[in-house]
TrEMBL record:
Its main location: secreted. Residues 23-42 are annotated as: Disordered. Belongs to the TGF-beta family. This is Growth/differentiation factor 11. InterPro entries: Cystine-knot_cytokine (IPR029034), TGF-b_C (IPR001839), TGF-beta-rel (IPR015615), TGFb_CS (IPR017948). It is found in: Secreted. The keyword Disulfide bond applies. It comes from Harpegnathos saltator.
Length: 227
């Protein structure tokens, strides 16, 4: 998130709390444990980025996704109270220091026994109301193409990516976000595209009518992102 500038370097207190689905008959939302950090307010006319580690909070999201209703952000100035005439955080989503949340998870690579980082992608279907970059199911039928030289599979799920790429949403690389902030001429912005592809195995006839078994990489879209 970006803090706006001020003339002093007194500490600004930032508190983040999960908004949880309430229990009982009332079902009123409840606030989870508070994560509080303090940061010096910047000097000069420009604001600055403030990075807050949310690893434990995000881990709880994945453990109980249905109970997660969002995040509450509270910022208190050096005087211990909110001041209406002094914005402490940039609220314009298109501004240079607009707040954004970058989430990464780790999955186990069974071939190497190590963990690798990945950005979380969205999975949607035809009835979904999601407009952002998302992976949709697409079944490819080779027989409809007239490709009778393919023995198996006759069809498979290829999937595809579609949707908008708003600022800082599922960036493929850090430079994707930086380029969006810089707004170079003739730049149309990031596009929704495959982030991870996987292979399929295929049995088919070659040009000499010999049966061939092959592994074809890059045939299935596993995850989508903005790049």
């Amino acid at each position: 998130m970006g803090l706006e500038n001020t003339k002093n370097q007194e500490a600004v207190t930032i508190t983040l709390q999960r908004i949880l689905r309430g229990a009982g008959e009332s079902g009123q939302p409840q606030l989870g444990p508070a994560l509080t950090t303090k940061h010096p307010r910047p000097i000069g006319r420009r604001g600055t980025w403030v990075t807050i580690e949310l690893r434990r909070m995000v881990a709880e999201w994945f453990k109980h996704p249905r109970d997660n209703l969002g995040v509450a952000l509270k910022i208190i100035g050096p005087d211990g109270a909110h001041r209406r005439n002094s914005r402490l955080v940039e609220t314009n989503p298109g501004a240079e220091y607009a707040p954004y949340l970058e989430v990464q998870t780790q999955e186990l690579d069974s071939r190497r026994g190590s963990r690798i980082k990945r950005n979380v992608g969205l999975n949607c279907d035809e009835s979904s109301q999601e407009t952002r970059c998302c992976r949709y199911k697409l079944t490819v039928d080779f027989e409809k193409f007239g490709w009778d030289w393919i023995i198996a599979p006759k069809k498979y799920d290829a999937n595809y990516c579609s949707g908008d790429c708003p600022m800082a949403f599922l960036p493929a690389y850090p430079v994707t976000h930086i380029v969006g902030l810089a707004e170079p001429p003739n730049n149309t912005g990031p596009c929704c595209a495959p982030r991870k592809l996987s292979e399929i195995t295929m049995l088919y006839f070659d040009n000499e009518y010999q049966i061939v078994f092959s592994r074809l990489p890059g045939m299935v879209v596993e995850r989508c992102g903005c790049s």
